[in-house]
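Workshop exercise sheet. Pairs work together: one partner reads the sequence aloud, the other fills in the structure field after running the prediction. Swap roles for the next sheet.
Pair: D.N. / O.F.
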Amino acid sequence: MRVILVSYSAQGFSLLHEVCRREGHTPVAYLHARSLNPGGPTRRGAGDVVSGIVDSLPDGMDLLVPGNKSLLPHLIDGYRADLIVCYGFPWRIPSDALRATRLGGLNVHTSMLPRHRGPIPVNWAIRNGEKEIGVSIHWMDEHFDSGGILAQEAGIALDDDVVPGLLWEQVDRHVERLLPTALSLAGSGAPGTPQDDRLASHAGWMEPEFLRIDWASRREVIHNQVRAVRFGSSGRSGPTASVGGQEVRVLRTSLVPTDGVEVMCGDGPLWITESTTD
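Structure field:
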């Protein structure tokens, strides 16, 4: 099959490209979003990401970096592709762009769908205090993450201190195992297993208030809030709070007694083990 690859980074494209080639398929173009929303401002650091993708781009491969999605159907149609394979793209690819291929599009999603549909499923799993995540590969349709599931596997542990780099390595290994099955089923026209919408939850962008700690909340809720914000910033940041009359950014906390600053939450103590006054 002729395949258009859609991803978030050079590493993501490399993984998809390698699996597709190994399974006998031909990548014909790469597609990348420089903004979180179609037509929105270019996100900070996007230039470095695009530069990294260009540096690793295979000879003769086109890289598409559209500013909005109105031209996607026309861009995709020109490649006479059989399939789109997406792993990390913040926009909903419109139905007419999917119809510009022979079969449609597959999406790699980092949750056990229908749980945590949306752009940041891992962040929400951490926020909810869940112990593990999984990977689902499904057909794309007119909604976010709601199409039939072709391959799915759980078993990626969420440690108390989630290290983004290590977690994404595990996710990539899941993708590498699952994608060949999904490609084979897609090529045969399999519709996938329908999702039960009654079990669906939404993993949208965090509300602005989530970046501020309310010490009246339950201590486990605050602990997971700190974990989720730290993960979302790749370990570089945390929510803000007032501690002893000083404004701090809380980077790590502990639910059990340890060295650090003890604070009282709505249902008991929590220990701040790392913070900054930036």
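Discussion prompt: Residues 7 and 23 are 19 Å apart (CA to CA). What would you look at next?
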